[in-house]
Amino acid sequence: MAQQQLLLLVLATIIVGLATIAGLNAYQESRKQSAIDHITQKAIEIAADVQIYARQPATYRSNTAPGGTELVVDFGELSHYKTNEASSDGDHVDPYATYSLDGHDTLPEAYAPAACPENNPLNTVEAYSKAHDVSVCVSITGTSADDLKVGVAR
């Protein structure tokens, strides 16, 4: 009888251990997906702000903004995004990723260009997270919500 109880105890311990490991793996994957979703949402938010800026009358835009079909601006025109001039050449940095507008010559470190839909070189918001090893690109083809295309490369 004691052998059966001992065997049942060992079996229960193994099952609980495996369930704990599976739960931790699911938590880590969910946490990573949540971070990717945050990075993607932030890039879309920046792209929408670029579209809003482009729709403003020329008198409200800075002298450096090109206007027309080129929506390229930098974070200087989008004043509510803080930049880290010292480490990122004017890119926006948050706890999850580094965001770059194509008006800059730099891209976030280790950014994967394959993230951009249709390899559109103009009017893009690029983001890279070193911690999550993910690249996000939002391509802006116009000033309406349907003119945003999102790509993610892991």
Structural class: alpha+beta
**Main beta sheet:** 5 strands, antiparallel
Number of strand elements: 5
Calculate the terminal CA-CA distance, rounded to whole Å. Answer: 54 Å
**Low-confidence spans:** none
- Provide a count of the helices: 2
Order of secondary-structure elements: HHEEEEE
Overall, the morphology is elongated
Strand content: 15-25%
Query: Taking all residues together, what is the mean pLDDT?
Result: 80
Strands of the widest sheet, in order across it, are: 1-2-3-4-5
- Percent range for helical residues? 25-40%
Number of structural units classed as domains: 1
Rg (C-alpha, Å): 23 Å
Tell me about this structure.
The protein has 154 residues and is an alpha+beta fold. It has one domain (2-153). It contains two helices and five strands, in the order ααβββββ. The protein has helices at 2-55, 85-88; strands spanning 92-93, 98-101, 124-129, 134-140, 148-153. The protein has a five-stranded antiparallel β-sheet, with helices on one face. It starts with a helix and ends with a strand. The mean pLDDT is 80.
Task: Supply database-style keywords.
alpha+beta; 154 residues; 5-stranded antiparallel β-sheet; elongated; 16% strand
List the helices and strands and how they pair.
Blueprint: H1 2-55, H2 85-88, E1 92-93, E2 98-101, E3 124-129, E4 134-140, E5 148-153
Antiparallel strand pairs: 1-2, 2-3, 3-4, 4-5
Short description:
This protein is an alpha+beta fold and 154 residues long.
